[in-house]
Design goal:
- The structure is a single chain.
- Among the domains are: 54-90; 92-127.
- It contains five helices and no strands.
- The chain has helices at residues 11-30, 43-47, 55-88, 93-104, 107-123.
- It is elongated.
Length: 127
C-alpha cells in the first residue's frame, strides 16, 4: 500500500469560509422565515393515513367500541354484585375466584398445575 501525499489546505481559505458562514447565519436569523406552501387536502385524507376510510365509518367503529366498553363495565359491576351476595351468604369469595380460574383450564392443564404445586411444596418440606 502506498500513501498518497495530500497538500494541506490553506488556513486563510477556511477562515474565509467560516466567516462567510457566520455572516450567512446572521442574515438568516434576521430574515423572516418562509413557510412551506400548504397543500390542499381532501376530506378523506384529513382523517388519517388511510385515505379510503370515511369519517362516518370511523365514527361507527368508535361508537361500537364505546358501547362494548360500557357493556363490559356493566357486566363487571354485575359480577361484583354476585360476589358480594355470595359473601353475604357465607361463601369464601377468594376460593370461589380460584375455582373459577381452575374451571377455565382444561383438565390436563389443571392436573399438571396441581402436580407441580405438590412437587414444589414437597421440595420446600411443607408436605
Amino acid at each position: 500500500m502506498t500513501k498518497e501525499k495530500t497538500t494541506p489546505k490553506k488556513k486563510t481559505v477556511l477562515k474565509k469560509k467560516v466567516s462567510a458562514g457566520k455572516a450567512d447565519a446572521e442574515k438568516k436569523s434576521t430574515a423572516p422565515k418562509k413557510s412551506a406552501p400548504v397543500k390542499e387536502t381532501t376530506k378523506a385524507a384529513e382523517v388519517g393515513h388511510n385515505s379510503g376510510i370515511s369519517s362516518k365509518q370511523l365514527k361507527q367503529f368508535v361508537k361500537k367500541v364505546e358501547d362494548l366498553e360500557n357493556e363490559k363495565k356493566e357486566i363487571a359491576d354485575d359480577i361484583k354484585d354476585i360476589f358480594a351476595h355470595a359473601k353475604s351468604s357465607g361463601f369464601n369469595v377468594k376460593i370461589m375466584r380460584k375455582v373459577l380460574k381452575l374451571r377455565k383450564q382444561d383438565k390436563i392443564a389443571r392436573d399438571e398445575e396441581a402436580e407441580l404445586v405438590d412437587t414444589y411444596m414437597f421440595a420446600l418440606g411443607d408436605r
